């Protein structure tokens, strides 16, 4: 499934994309919380494809050292 198709089929995803567009327009960053790793992976792929930027996806299976690096990158805006 193409990211564009996922966005068009889901009202929640479409609304999320609009919110992120507004956040990006203000040169801000955001955190998105999801209950499921599969959903997180899907959102990561859709967002990277749509915005053409790297997206960090932190979950419980990410090793602590890598998690700490991701948190530091997010806080410093260097991701």
UniProtKB/TrEMBL annotation:
Sorted UniProt keywords: Hydrolase
Q: What PANTHER family does the record tag this protein with?
A: DNA EXCISION REPAIR PROTEIN ERCC-6-RELATED, SNF2/RAD54 FAMILY MEMBER
- What's the protein name? Helicase C-terminal domain-containing protein
Q: Which domain of life is it from?
A: Bacteria
The keyword Transmembrane helix appears for this protein:
no
For the Helicase C-terminal domain, which residue ranges apply?
Answer: 12-78
Q: Does the keyword Hydrolase apply?
A: yes
Matches recorded under InterPro entries:
Helicase_C-like, P-loop_NTPase, SNF2/RAD54-like_C, SNF2_RAD54_helicase_repair
Give the GO molecular function terms.
Answer: DNA translocase activity; hydrolase activity
Species the sequence originates in: Winogradskyella ouciana
């Amino acid at each position: 499934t193409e990211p564009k198709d996922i966005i068009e089929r889901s009202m929640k995803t479409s609304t999320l994309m609009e919110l992120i567009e507004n956040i990006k327009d203000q040169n801000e960053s955001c955190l998105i919380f999801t209950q499921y790793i599969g959903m997180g992976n899907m959102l990561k792929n859709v967002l990277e494809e749509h915005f053409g930027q790297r997206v960090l996806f932190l979950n419980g299976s990410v090793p602590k050292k890598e998690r700490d690096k991701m948190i530091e990158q997010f806080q410093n805006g260097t991701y």
